[in-house]
Amino acid sequence: MKIAVIHNRVRAEDAPDARDVLQQAEEVIAALASLGHQVVRWSCGLDLEEARRALAGFGPDLVFNLVEDLAGHGRLIHLFPSLLDALRIPYTGAPAEAIFLTSHKTLAKERMQQAGLPTPAWAGPWPVAGRERRPSGWANKWIIKSLWEHASVGLDAGSVLATDSAATLSAEMRRRCDALGGSCFAEEFIDGREFNLSLLAGADGPEVLPPAEILFSGYTPDMIRIVDYQAKWDEGSLPYRNTPRTFDFGPADAPLLQELTDIARRCWHAFALAGYARVDFRVDGAGRPFILEINTNPCLSPDAGFAAALAQAGISFAQAMARIVADARRNPPQSEK
């Protein structure tokens, strides 16, 4: 099969989080080639007419979609798969609608709330677009996050603040907005354990891979326990060195892990996901889980959580790519009416 591996265009001066997609593309291309596919590679920018012409020239049977943003804007992530839908070209991973819904963090939280899925209270987004939304609840401790951007962009220890004042919270969102991609929201800070659960499509539905917990080893009591930008991308930093993941749990955690597994599977169906995904959780001191984020098409780099979960499950990277491709062929774009 002829597969086009397409990722977002990356510049030499881009930050490590943006450049990571290049490594992902290399890993995916090697795996697909090992499976006997004919592979072409291309990078997509803002010019969708250029992308349409390139696709016409390639004539792929399938696109492996690694586009994470367009021109550095995460809010545009859904436009490339929307183009593929319009051209009726099958592609891997989540459909455009699911990508848009999960990328807009407060819309995703509204859908979770409607589906009865547990997620922390939130306020925002900022700036207000259209009708102003009332906070979904109130808390005394908040974390301010980007509305659209992924990879913990703009997230640091200063993102967490304690306040019971709506005015103070709004002012802080306004102050941090530019560093968070131009739009942000506040979420109740759940001080507790952090888990990631990856999912992989199969012929009989999604398989939830072994749960992973992020450990905050060596953190002093005054340090904020979050996976911030440093923890993900700054290899010389204390957060990077002291946030390992573990798949080892004792019998006492079995009920919690089963609950997280069940919730992750419900997320897959509630958001009509496909191919592969990851759900991030925090669990509070009372053992209650809260969904932080649903990640469509999560990072495929060898050191990322999805690859680690595959290894823990005994699934090779090439086997996983074969399942993602097979799922895309089972669920092609629908013809326009």
- CATH superfamily descriptor of the largest domain: ATP-grasp fold, B domain
User: What structural class do you assign from the helix and strand content?
Assistant: alpha+beta
Q: Report the major sheet.
A: 6 strands, antiparallel
Q: How many strand units? A: 13
Which runs of at least 5 residues are low in confidence (pLDDT < 50)?
none
Under the CATH scheme, which architecture of the largest domain would be assigned?
2-Layer Sandwich
Strand content: 15-25%
Within the CATH hierarchy, at the fold level, what is the topology of the largest domain? D-amino Acid Aminotransferase, Chain A, domain 1
CATH hierarchy, class of the largest domain: Alpha Beta
Return the string of H and E elements: EHEHEHHHEEEHEEEEHHEHEEHH
Dominant shape: globular
Task: Please give the domain count.
Answer: 3
Count up the helices: 11
CA-based gyration radius: 20 Å
What gap, in angstroms, lies between the N and C termini? 28 Å
State mean pLDDT (0 to 100 scale). Answer: 93
What is the helix fraction of residues, given as a range? 25-40%
Characterize the structure shown.
With 337 residues, the chain is α+β, with helices and mostly antiparallel strands. The chain has three domains: 91 residues, Rossmann fold (3-Layer(aba) Sandwich); 68 residues, no CATH class; 140 residues, D-amino Acid Aminotransferase, Chain A, domain 1 (2-Layer Sandwich). It has eleven helices and 13 strands. The strands form three sheets. Strands 8, 9, 10, 11, 12 and 13 form a six-stranded antiparallel beta sheet that branches. Strand 12 and strand 13 form a beta hairpin. The chain is globular. The two termini are 28 Å apart. The model has no long low-confidence stretch (mean pLDDT 93).
